[in-house]
Amino acid sequence: MPYLSDRRGGGRGARGRAPAGAERSRGQSLKPGPRGEVSGRMTTLTRQDLNFGQVVADVLCEFLEVAVHLILYVREVYPVGIFQKRKKYNVPVQMSCHPELNQYIQDTLHCVKPLLEKNDVEKVVVVILDKEHRPVEKFVFEITQPPLLSISSDSLLSHVEQLLRAFILKISVCDAVLDHNPPGCTFTVLVHTREAATRNMEKIQVIKDFPWILADEQDVHMHDPRLIPLKTMTSDILKMQLYVEERAHKSS
User: Fold this and answer.
1) Membrane-spanning residues where (predicted)?
2) Phi, psi for 65 (deg, rounded to 5)
3) For FRET with 125, which of 37, 110, 192, 212 sits at 20 to 30 Å CA-CA?
């Protein structure tokens, strides 16, 4: 079930799109909380293990934060001047230094994190919209988390970070396989949840004071899009696939 961020007052257009201000002031890059530690020994964990769910959610949110910033930079949704080069996963990345934009991304992922902990998320989608708020591109992160597995600290951290690095590298060069977007684009974030997560979404909205709404057809549908696979990973703790849906005629 797709949900759309509906934050009011911070964005351009309806449904609380992400901020699109002309003047950009410097701000601090976002720093998600610590991912936690697990024993170096091989351990069997279930989805009900709170620590395990939190660690996986932290890893994913930290990655998604970097990925969203990089997508906005590569696809030129915001001026290049608001981004600064940083290093993540041992590769250079571009992170926004605009406080309002950073806060929007942080608040979005802060609400997604409890759903990831409960394995209620099927997809996280970064949607780039034209001036009429119609989707021109969707960066789709399909996420699958196994309910039972054996992991060690090495497989959890080192191996997974290597795989996530490959995603970042693919995003950084994705403009080579995508057409230019029309000027004046904005973006929003869609979260596709399992049916059982509806009640959790309602609780999160109350606790986090960051409203979400069910996405309507205009936010979700793209007529006859071109599908561009970017990267797939399989690890002990999760499987993830990234692909782009691109509108055939972006100028129309």
Assistant:
1) none
2) -60, -50
3) 37
